[in-house]
Amino acid sequence: MPTASAVMADIVDYTAGRAERTFQAILRNRTAQPLDVLPQEASEHRFYIRCIVDDRPHVLADVTDILGRHQISISSLHQDEPVDDASGDPTARLVMMTHRADEGRMRLADAELGQLDCVRGDCLRLPVAE
Predict the structure, then answer these.
(1) 32-89: per-residue pLDDT in tens?
(2) Which DSSP letter does residue 100 get?
(3) For residue 30, is pLDDT > 70?
(4) Measuring CA to CA, how many Å separate 42 from each of 4, 34, 36, 65, 115?
(5) For residues 13 and 56, which has the higher predicted lDDT (pLDDT)?
(6) Rounded to a whole number, what is the largest CA-CA distance in the chain?
């Protein structure tokens, strides 16, 4: 009952034109300047990246070279033991965590990673909330 009474009092104040007294915090925000929205490409996150790659020499160098050229620093890296894929070729799962990097650079690196012949399928990339 007390909540219903308070709600009804707010409705009466609003309809009677006394909203300035009752809803000061809400009305104060009406005059605030709109906030600029950061373009998605400029947003920064840490990223989790997982790729299935051929298990052969120089693959890790190719992957890390692409990330490095886009100023994406790796904070941790793990490669699983190789397993044979359907064609009998050995592949390995490569898992990386990056330091903070912007989305735009990460997208460019993604496109280049997808062009490597040693990467099987698409790499999984997820932003990490901190």
Answers:
(1) 677 788 888 888 999 999 999 999 999 999 999 999 999 999 999 999 998 887 778 8
(2) S
(3) no
(4) 46, 19, 13, 22, 24
(5) 56
(6) 79
52: closest CA among 128, 113, 127, 126? 113
Residue 111 sits in a domain whose CATH number is: 3.30.70.260
pLDDT at 89: 86
How many C-beta neighbours within 10 Å does residue 72 have? 21
Domain span holding position 21 = 1-35
Q: What is the pTM of this model?
A: 0.69
> Within 13 A of 63's CA, how many CA atoms are on the CB side?
25
Q: What is the dihedral of CA 53, 55, 60, 65, to 10 degrees?
A: -60
If asked whether residues 57 and 89 sit together in one domain, one would say: yes
